[in-house]
From TrEMBL:
Catalyzes the ATP-dependent phosphorylation of 3-oxo-tetronate to 3-oxo-tetronate 4-phosphate. GO terms for molecular function: ATP binding; kinase activity. This is 3-oxo-tetronate kinase. Gene3D superfamilies: Four-carbon acid sugar kinase, nucleotide binding domain (3.40.980.20), Putative sugar-binding, N-terminal domain (3.40.50.10840). Residues 250-401 form the Four-carbon acid sugar kinase nucleotide binding domain. Its EC number is 2.7.1.217. Keywords: ATP-binding, Carbohydrate metabolism, Kinase, Nucleotide-binding, Transferase. The keyword Transferase applies. It comes from Pseudaestuariivita atlantica. The lineage of its organism: Bacteria, Pseudomonadati, Pseudomonadota, Alphaproteobacteria, Rhodobacterales. InterPro entries: 4-carb_acid_sugar_kinase_N, 4-carb_acid_sugar_kinase_N_sf, NBD_C, NBD_C_sf, OtnK.
């Protein structure tokens, strides 16, 4: 293994694996830290954690355990993947995990770059944009777990790290890899270890990748991984894919804007069942029964709890944010388990936390990466009889569920 990657959620990890696979790396996504060594043919190993919204100390401990395993597999460079919308709170977990990994590796000049132009996320003069909106006006200010209320990544990161935050601005990035290297060295000399790097185009990300060739640790969204495989001599290509026959189900616990639009579009033409917060949280809904309902439908069935921000706020005020979140996640995991036990072979999930709960609930250890469905979302093979698509909240075209199902089926 050459490149060792640690993802703070499962959809984000598959987004990252997708980028590396398209750039020609042989990549596998692991659910948590594996207990065995990797197959020697794997060039890039993505250890998917569910560490974005857990207590800081747990996120740090899990990330360090992942780092130990990746080091033991022979990796020479490491990557910490977080969300392209920099999902975190003033306590963490991006800063503390980046600090801990940098300490363990003795790394300096640690790039911090959430940009992902393919999905509209760019970093300009230290500020994160989603398309033409600043992050804090993009809808992310209403995120149920990590509301993002400041678009200045330097300012948002500052309270999360023990050091000071540096910046490599667009004018240096546009000047190419040598200028980026020089700017990183300048920020290092000024005493900054975590350095926010601007990027607004894929070409910028490739140049940053070239500049990062000898850096032990890079952090960011999947975008900044774009330029890394070339440093290992990889050549872009399309991963192989064998379609999977059998029944499909969709599960959505994401309340993000893109998912809510996808749910509305899907519901208009397919069987869809809304999971009521009261019933789920108070344990009055049976996941086996919901799984039976899903498998009894014609068309592509969807079970969802996706709701508008005012409804989510009411649910959280009544039950508490964590209790509500966990109840839905456990419910989706149990429903997926029951549906697969009853014969489902294609499972499409929306939402990072939701997808993580489902993959863990299904006990899937390794995911092989197939072709891209939409930017940031690959087809995944878990077993000979089970394929998945794990969609990040704000990713995907309006008809994502249908599109994913067609590609997973090999149509
Ligand atoms: N109706 C609801 N009321 C309150 N909380 C909900 C509701 N539906 C889902 N949730 C919770 O909101 C959280 C949504 O997070 P999740 O990561 O799954 O989606 P997302 O944030 O849109 O995706 P991503 O992290 O990929 O951007 C989960 O913890 C989920 O259980
Ligand atoms: O980077 C992104 O936006 C996604 O991969 C993600 O992590 C959303 O949960």
């Amino acid at each position: 293994m050459k490149l060792g990657l640690i993802g703070d959620d499962f959809t984000g990890s598959s987004d990252l694996a997708n980028t590396l696979a398209k750039e020609g790396m042989r990549v596998v996504q692991y659910t948590g830290v594996p207990e065995h060594d990797a197959d020697p043919s794997v060039e890039a190993g993505v250890v998917a954690l569910k560490s974005r919204s857990i207590p800081v100390a747990d996120a740090v401990a899990q990330s360090l355990a992942a780092l130990d395993w990746l080091r033991a597999q022979g990796c020479t460079q490491f990557f910490f993947k977080y969300c392209s919308t920099f999902d975190s709170t003033p306590e963490g977990n991006i800063g503390p995990v980046a600090d801990a990994l940098a300490d363990a590796l003795g790394a300096r000049q640690v790039i911090v770059c959430p940009a992902f132009p393919g999905t509209g996320r760019s970093v300009y003069q230290g500020h994160l944009f989603v398309n033409d909106r600043l992050l804090n006006e993009s809808g992310m200010q209403n995120h149920p777990l990590t509301p993002m209320t400041d678009p200045d990544i330097r300012r948002w990161l500052a309270p999360q790290t023990t050091g000071t935050v540096g910046h490599v601005a667009t004018q240096d990035v546009f000047a190419g890899p040598e200028a980026i290297r020089a700017a990183l060295a300048r920020e290092d000399a000024a005493g900054h270890r975590l350095i926010v790097v601007d990027a607004i185009r894929d070409a910028d990300l490739r140049d940053i990748g070239t500049a990062a060739r000898d850096l032990p640790l890079v952090t960011g969204g999947s975008g900044v991984a774009l330029g890394l495989p070339a440093n290992f001599g990889c050549i872009p290509g399309t991963p192989d894919w064998q379609g999977q026959a059998g029944p499909a189900i969709c599960l959505s616990g994401s309340c993000s804007i893109a998912t809510r639009a996808q749910v509305a579009e899907h519901r208009a033409r397919n069987p869809a069942r809304e999971l009521g917060a009261e019933e789920v949280i108070e344990g009055r809904l049976d996941p086996d029964e919901v799984a039976r309902w899903l498998l009894a439908q014609d068309g592509l069935p969807l079970a969802y709890s996706s709701a508008d921000p005012d409804i989510v706020a009411e649910v959280q005020a009544r039950y508490g944010r964590d209790r509500a979140g966990h109840a839905f996640e456990e419910f989706f995991a149990a429903t997926a388990r029951a549906a697969v036990a009853q014969g489902a072979t294609r499972v499409i999930t929306a939402g990072g936390e939701t997808s993580g709960a489902v993959v863990e609930g299904l006990g899937l250890g390794e995911l092989r990466i197939g072709p891209e469905i939409d930017p940031g979302v690959p087809a995944l093979r878990a077993r000979d009889d089970l394929v998945l698509a794990l969609k990040s909240g704000n990713f995907g075209a309006p008809d994502f569920f249908d599109k994913a199902n067609r590609l997973l089926a090999g149509a």
